[in-house]
Design a protein that fits this description.
The protein has 434 residues and is of the alpha/beta class. The protein is built from 14 helices and 23 strands. The strands form seven sheets. Strands 1, 2, 3, 5, 13, 14 and 15 form a seven-stranded mixed sheet that branches. Strands 18-19-17-16-22-23 form a six-stranded mixed sheet, with helices on both faces. A two-stranded antiparallel sheet has the order 4-7. The radius of gyration is 22 Å and the shape is globular.
């Protein structure tokens, strides 16, 4: 039995699965935590990766591997392969001003045409501009820029700072994939190459960037094992779920994401839909919302019930919750872009204001926010035929029952699983067979 390894290096933790390359069945697995914070020393990810691999039984019998992980984070390296400063993660918002500056300088239409994205604070290009403006001495030292999964792949292949790695600081051996490159803000999905002008406008000079591997391209680690290009977390999840054209993945976690597999590139100058690529050669247009499962948390606390009872109450009420409507912008909102908005409850009458209707309004309101993401995708011509409901919120019976009514699509709820790591393992199996 040939074995492969898939990794999910997420914001919170590192998950490793060792699977049967032929069947995809999980043979063994391991995990290790990551530190909290929006700026993290990448050494913590490296330590967690090694711990998780050890917990999963090691790499000795593995034939190929690939790493998926959190997108957008800025790992800045000097000429000796050393990390210059803590990596700014996707959820570090100090670069919001830099995003606005870049949009003013180039124009939203032009940036969307060149990269598929309109900059927001999460994207790598804005973090490089922030570095240039706030820490010019550090910016001047940058010889290479990597994303979290690029850097971990480089390290696990044996590269790194001189004296701390067997193969040394060969920056040209950094690799990535289309999906993660598409979230930087300086990669062109039409040519498949980097937009060096945008990189220089952000950082102040050119730098080494990871080589972008195709879907079945591979390199080798120090032991001769095949290594895939990896994936950004959403693209890895799509691959792990087996999503294809016509599928839309609706992920209900702390925040919400709605992303579809598409054969065609999307361009949205409003910035609502990010025009990401996937890791199979297709595209992965994505909409993010700030308010998802926490909407249910908030209303559950108000009603002093757990999630099971909230679900039971919601299913007791009629569709439409008797006219009670919750606009769930508890933390502002990204889609639509209303950062200062607050939640509101309307349609309150003596008849409609019941515990059951409030529970139903919470579920319908949360799903309506995600449905707006589906409408944004439809507006760009993305075909949507089936919704795959994942994340912690998908475990609610009320969410599963009400979702088809609100989303307007057939809904399937896959078994809970480490789909990013499983997607990376599927990629590893593909390069092993190539």
């Amino acid at each position: 039995m040939a074995l492969v390894m898939g990794v999910d290096s997420s914001t919170q933790s590192c998950k490793v699965v060792i699977t049967d390359a032929s069947t995809g069945a999980v043979v063994r697995e391991g995990r290790a935590p990551h530190p909290d914070g929006t700026a993290v020393d990448p050494a913590a990810w490296w330590d967690a990766l090694q711990s998780a691999i050890t917990a999963a039984g090691g790499l000795d019998d593995v034939g190929a591997w690939a790493i998926g992980g959190q997108q957008h984070g800025m790992v800045a390296l000097d000429a000796e392969g050393r990390v210059i400063r803590d990596a700014l993660l996707w959820n570090d918002t100090r670069s919001a001003g830099a995003a606005a500056d870049l949009t003013r300088e180039f124009g939203a239409d032009e940036l969307a045409r060149r990269t598929g994205l309109v900059p927001v604070a999460s994207f790598t290009i804005t973090k490089l501009r922030w570095l240039h403006d706030a820490e010019p001495e550090n910016a001047a030292r940058v010889a290479a820029v990597a994303l979290p999964h690029d850097w971990l792949t480089w390290r696990l292949r044996g590269f790194g700072p001189r004296g701390d790695s067997p193969r040394g600081p060969v920056l040209e051996e950094l690799i990535t994939d289309r999906s993660d490159a598409s979230g930087t803000g300086y990669w062109d999905p039409v040519t498949g190459g980097y937009d060096r002008g945008l990189l220089a406008a952000a950082l102040g000079h050119d730098a080494v960037l990871p080589r972008v591997l195709g879907p079945e391209e591979w390199v080798e680690d120090e032991a001769g094992r095949r290594v895939g290009g990896g994936a950004g977390d959403n693209a890895g999840a799509a691959l792990g779920l087996g999503a294809g054209p016509g599928d839309v993945v609706v992920s209900i976690g702390t925040s919400g994401t709605v992303f579809a597999v598409s054969d065609e590139r999307t361009v949205d100058p409003t910035g609502t839909v990010a025009g990401f690529a996937d890791c199979t050669g297709r595209f992965l247009p994505l909409v993010a919302t700030l308010n998802a499962a926490r909407v249910l948390d908030a209303v559950g606390r108000l009603l002093a019930v757990d999630h099971a009872e909230l679900s039971r109450l919601a299913l007791t009420a009629e569709p439409g919750a008797g006219g009670l409507t919750l606009v769930p912008y508890f933390e502002g909102e990204r889609t639509p872009n209303l950062p200062d908005a607050t939640a509101s409850l309307t349609g309150m009458t003596l008849a409609s204001t019941t515990r059951e209707n409030l529970a139903r309004a919470a579920v319908e309101g949360m799903l309506s926010g995600l449905a707006a993401g589906l409408e944004a995708l439809r507006g760009l011509g993305v075909p949507l035929e089936r919704a795959l409901l994942v994340g912690g919120g998908a475990q609610s019976e009320a969410v599963r029952t009400i979702a088809p009514l609100v989303l307007g699509l057939p809904v399937e709820v896959p078994e809970p699983g480490e789909y990013v790591a499983l997607g990376a393992a599927r990629q590893a199996a593909s390069v092993l067979a190539a």
